[in-house]
Amino acid sequence: MTNDELQMAAFEIILNSGNSRTVVHEAFAEMREGNYDKASELLDVANEDLLQAHKAQTKLLQEYAGGREIKIEIIMVHAQDHLMTTMTLREVAIEMLALYKKMQ
């Protein structure tokens, strides 16, 4: 895999997980206002962005498993960190939404 291809994959992961993170924070704001249906919709939107990031990650893993050499650079480490942090944040948001609903 060329350095350019790796960087493009990393930026795709960063872009999509960053978009997802923004939407998760919008969902938190809706939760605070008691707009639970809207928060749930936003978490679904956030998941769509995460799926796009995950597809880019999976493509890299498939290429690696197929024997293609992939040189890992700091940008890919950053991309992976972005993705995993956002996935965790969304999971926490789902739990918080359930707790908000339970408290009403």
From TrEMBL:
<dbReference type="InterPro" id="IPR003188">
    <property type="entry name" value="PTS_IIA_lac/cel"/>
</dbReference>
<keyword id="KW-0598">Phosphotransferase system</keyword>
<keyword id="KW-0762">Sugar transport</keyword>
<keyword id="KW-0479">Metal-binding</keyword>
<feature type="binding site">
    <location>
        <position position="81"/>
    </location>
    <ligand>
        <name>Mg(2+)</name>
    </ligand>
</feature>
<protein>
    <submittedName>
        <fullName>Cellobiose PTS family porter IIA component</fullName>
    </submittedName>
</protein>
<keyword id="KW-0813">Transport</keyword>
<keyword id="KW-0460">Magnesium</keyword>
<keyword id="KW-0808">Transferase</keyword>
<dbReference type="InterPro" id="IPR036542">
    <property type="entry name" value="PTS_IIA_lac/cel_sf"/>
</dbReference>
<dbReference type="GO" id="GO:0046872">
    <property type="term" value="F:metal ion binding"/>
</dbReference>
<feature type="active site" description="Tele-phosphohistidine intermediate">
    <location>
        <position position="78"/>
    </location>
</feature>
<dbReference type="GO" id="GO:0016740">
    <property type="term" value="F:transferase activity"/>
</dbReference>
<dbReference type="Pfam" id="PF02255">
    <property type="entry name" value="PTS_IIA"/>
</dbReference>
<dbReference type="GO" id="GO:0009401">
    <property type="term" value="P:phosphoenolpyruvate-dependent sugar phosphotransferase system"/>
</dbReference>
<feature type="modified residue" description="Phosphohistidine; by HPr">
    <location>
        <position position="78"/>
    </location>
</feature>
